[in-house]
Amino acid sequence: TVIGSKDGTVYLNAYTSSYLATAGSGDVLAGLIASFLSQGLSALKAARLGCYIHSQCGLNLGFGLIASDLVEEIPNVIKKMHYETWSITDLKAILWALINLFFYNYRFMY
User: Fold this and answer.
1) pLDDT at 30 over 70
2) Burial of 100: CB neighbours in 10 Å, binned 0-12, 13-18, 19+
3) Do 48 and 88 form a contact (C-beta atoms < 8 A)?
4) DSSP character for 10?
5) What's the pLDDT tens digit per position in 49-98?
6) DSSP readout, 31-52?
Protein backbone atom coordinates (compact mmCIF):
# COMPACT_ATOMS: atom_id res chain seq x y z
CA THR A 1 0.00 0.00 0.00
CA VAL A 2 1.31 3.43 -0.91
CA ILE A 3 0.18 6.46 1.09
CA GLY A 4 1.14 9.94 -0.07
CA SER A 5 1.01 13.23 1.81
CA LYS A 6 0.45 16.76 0.57
CA ASP A 7 4.12 17.61 0.98
CA GLY A 8 5.17 14.77 -1.31
CA THR A 9 6.26 12.32 1.38
CA VAL A 10 5.47 8.76 0.39
CA TYR A 11 4.82 5.98 2.88
CA LEU A 12 4.90 2.38 1.75
CA ASN A 13 3.52 -0.54 3.74
CA ALA A 14 5.56 -3.44 2.42
CA TYR A 15 4.69 -5.71 5.34
CA THR A 16 1.27 -6.93 4.29
CA SER A 17 -0.53 -9.94 2.89
CA SER A 18 -2.03 -10.92 -0.45
CA TYR A 19 -4.80 -12.60 1.56
CA LEU A 20 -6.39 -9.16 1.84
CA ALA A 21 -7.34 -9.33 -1.85
CA THR A 22 -10.85 -10.47 -1.06
CA ALA A 23 -14.33 -9.02 -1.36
CA GLY A 24 -15.06 -6.42 1.30
CA SER A 25 -11.49 -6.07 2.54
CA GLY A 26 -11.20 -2.54 1.15
CA ASP A 27 -14.47 -1.62 2.80
CA VAL A 28 -13.02 -2.68 6.16
CA LEU A 29 -9.94 -0.55 5.49
CA ALA A 30 -12.11 2.43 4.54
CA GLY A 31 -14.12 1.96 7.74
CA LEU A 32 -10.96 1.87 9.83
CA ILE A 33 -9.67 5.07 8.27
CA ALA A 34 -13.06 6.80 8.62
CA SER A 35 -13.26 5.79 12.29
CA PHE A 36 -9.84 7.33 12.98
CA LEU A 37 -10.81 10.49 11.09
CA SER A 38 -13.98 10.78 13.18
CA GLN A 39 -11.82 10.59 16.33
CA GLY A 40 -9.80 13.62 15.21
CA LEU A 41 -6.71 12.08 13.62
CA SER A 42 -5.30 13.81 10.55
CA ALA A 43 -6.02 12.16 7.22
CA LEU A 44 -2.41 11.04 6.91
CA LYS A 45 -2.26 9.53 10.41
CA ALA A 46 -5.65 7.87 9.93
CA ALA A 47 -4.56 6.33 6.63
CA ARG A 48 -1.25 5.08 8.03
CA LEU A 49 -2.78 3.62 11.19
CA GLY A 50 -5.71 2.08 9.32
CA CYS A 51 -3.36 0.53 6.78
CA TYR A 52 -1.14 -0.90 9.52
CA ILE A 53 -4.02 -2.46 11.47
CA HIS A 54 -5.62 -3.80 8.28
CA SER A 55 -2.34 -5.40 7.22
CA GLN A 56 -1.74 -6.96 10.62
CA CYS A 57 -5.24 -8.44 10.57
CA GLY A 58 -4.53 -10.02 7.17
CA LEU A 59 -1.22 -11.43 8.34
CA ASN A 60 -2.77 -12.83 11.52
CA LEU A 61 -5.70 -14.48 9.76
CA GLY A 62 -3.96 -15.88 6.68
CA PHE A 63 -5.43 -17.78 3.77
CA GLY A 64 -9.20 -17.95 3.42
CA LEU A 65 -10.08 -14.85 5.38
CA ILE A 66 -13.27 -12.97 4.64
CA ALA A 67 -14.13 -9.36 5.44
CA SER A 68 -16.07 -10.22 8.59
CA ASP A 69 -12.98 -12.05 9.90
CA LEU A 70 -11.02 -8.81 9.55
CA VAL A 71 -13.59 -6.92 11.59
CA GLU A 72 -13.38 -9.50 14.36
CA GLU A 73 -9.55 -9.40 14.32
CA ILE A 74 -9.23 -5.60 14.69
CA PRO A 75 -9.57 -5.56 18.51
CA ASN A 76 -6.89 -8.26 18.81
CA VAL A 77 -4.43 -6.23 16.73
CA ILE A 78 -5.15 -3.03 18.65
CA LYS A 79 -4.80 -4.88 21.96
CA LYS A 80 -1.42 -6.24 20.88
CA MET A 81 -0.30 -2.74 19.88
CA HIS A 82 -1.12 -1.43 23.36
CA TYR A 83 -0.45 -4.21 25.83
CA GLU A 84 2.02 -6.78 24.57
CA THR A 85 5.72 -6.57 24.14
CA TRP A 86 7.25 -7.22 20.74
CA SER A 87 8.45 -10.74 20.09
CA ILE A 88 11.65 -11.51 18.20
CA THR A 89 9.50 -12.48 15.20
CA ASP A 90 7.75 -9.10 15.32
CA LEU A 91 11.07 -7.27 15.59
CA LYS A 92 12.50 -9.18 12.63
CA ALA A 93 9.39 -8.35 10.60
CA ILE A 94 9.63 -4.67 11.55
CA LEU A 95 13.32 -4.59 10.65
CA TRP A 96 12.59 -6.21 7.29
CA ALA A 97 9.79 -3.69 6.66
CA LEU A 98 12.10 -0.78 7.52
CA ILE A 99 14.79 -2.09 5.18
CA ASN A 100 12.22 -2.40 2.40
CA LEU A 101 10.80 1.01 3.22
CA PHE A 102 14.24 2.61 2.94
CA PHE A 103 14.85 1.13 -0.50
CA TYR A 104 11.35 1.91 -1.75
CA ASN A 105 11.57 5.50 -0.49
CA TYR A 106 14.97 5.82 -2.13
CA ARG A 107 13.39 5.01 -5.48
CA PHE A 108 10.61 7.49 -4.93
CA MET A 109 13.02 10.26 -4.03
CA TYR A 110 14.74 10.25 -7.41
Assistant:
1) yes
2) middle
3) no
4) E
5) 899 999 999 999 999 999 999 999 998 998 888 765 556 666 666 666 55
6) HHHHHHHHTT--HHHHHHHHHH
